[in-house]
Amino acid sequence: MRERIDRCAAMAKASGKLSLAIVGSTANRNNPPFAIGPTKESDRFVGSSFITRDLEVFKEICTYADGKVDYLFVDVEAKTDPPFDFLAEAKACVKTSKVKTYKGNDITAHACDLLVSEIVGDLAGKKVAIIGAGNIGSKVAVKLVERGADVYINRRDRNGDLLASAINAMKTRYTSGTVYSASDPAEAARHADVLIGFTQGIPAITGAMISALNSNALIVDGGVGTLTEDAIAAAKSAGLSLFRLDVRIALPFVVDSILSTERFLTSVAGTFVDNGKTYVAGGIIGSRGDIVVETIADLGTIVGIADGKGGILKYR
Question: What is the mean pLDDT of residues 175-190?
């Protein structure tokens, strides 16, 4: 752990980027109490990554990373049993580095959506089966039905009908896709163009389900370990695309967005009074007659005059 933090911090310094330590949690009991993930990198940062459900390990990471990295990113979604307040623990341990929060499940869902849409392309009219429609699977169902897919969700409890109804109620009225609840996972997978597993590592996707897919189907192991060994063999034998979901697809975008939000609030948004004139920028709702500028750091970039209701009374 220490070597990885030191190495990523050195890489960040050498490249003029920000250094991060990213700590996620997991609900997958098949995962070890602590794991080191791949190095995460974008044009703005280099980050070491860790996954743990052990509070003492989490504290050790925070304590060692403090002052060695610019930012500590903490997953704030409650996944452990018993649930720990990782953010409170991080704030208690970290004195120098900045602490930011993210939601790991959202990143996983976003990565799955991006992967499926990139490989399949137009999802309108396609059948997607999601085996394990818990928190992440449900979020993926929302994303894919909004792309026009017909999504069949399978849960191990009796809330499938309720969940499908809720998603169908919240989607836009013009969405062509529909979410259906399937009590039988085999039926959900039958003739599917995309099969996604999110069962927290429980091998629920079988070889028979793979054989029932449409030709050229895409299979995504989102929960890691959701396919039985015969399912993997069947997929490879049939020449189907089979992916273990990798969150590096979406994580740089999310982390960059968090860093950009900080910069926006500190360098773009704000209020400034000069010579009796009030300037506002970055979404600050000014009073009627205030001068709206593009950025509070440059009062010369005038957009117009505020109407006092969040809009522009007069554009420059």
Answer: 96
Q: What is the pLDDT of residues 71-106, one digit of tens each?
A: 999 999 887 777 889 999 999 999 999 999 999 999
Q: For residue 272, what is the enclosing H or E element?
A: strand 270-274
Question: What is the phi/psi pair of residue 10, to 5°?
Answer: -65, -40
DSSP 82-128: S---HHHHHHHH-SSSEEEEE-HHHHHHHHHHHHHHHHH---TT-EE
What DSSP state is assigned to residue 314?
A: E
Helix axes 55-65, 86-93, angle to 10 degrees: 40
Q: Taking the CA atoms of 297, 303, 307 and 309 in sequence, report the sign of the dihedral they define.
A: negative
Helix (H, G, I), strand (E, B) or coil at 286: coil
pLDDT digits (tens, 9 = 90+) for 251-272: 999 999 999 999 999 999 999 9
3-class state of residue 8 by DSSP: helix
Q: Is 188 exposed, middle or buried (0-12, 13-18, 19+ CB in 10 A)?
A: buried
